[in-house]
Please model this.
Amino acid sequence: MARNESEDVAGSAVLKNPFNFQTQELSTSPVKPVTIAIFMFGLGLRLAVSQGLMLLMSYGGNKSVDGVIKEIDADPGIGHVEEAQFWQVHYGLGMANLRIRVPKGSDEGALSRLRHRVASLVQDRLGEGYGQGGSLRWDVTVQMMTDAHI
Model:
């Protein structure tokens, strides 16, 4: 009778805390925890790589990025576009980073209007437009450098 009572007490302890049983079993064999750790590391690595690739997606929209760059380059207030990077951060947001050369001596007001024109141009040409559902919003960063040769 005493033996059955002790088995009942041990059985209820496992039911109250099932992780206690797992901890006791894993501590007897050093191979199981190492195997579990390796598989968890591998799974975490795959997840981290796939998340990183999603965050660095290049913009592959059906609109012409080259046309936007050419149109920005044709603006009379811009010397030339030195670097342009476009990518889609997630479903509804794209990022555009541009480095442009402007003529030396441009005042702050003209540079501010130019920055606004470039941002509006990117949003108008690559964004899907307001009210069409699923519109892509663009966050545009413009770095301007003066050039004395323009």
Residues 2-55 form one domain. Helices lie at 2-16, 18-28, 31-55, 65-73, 108-126.
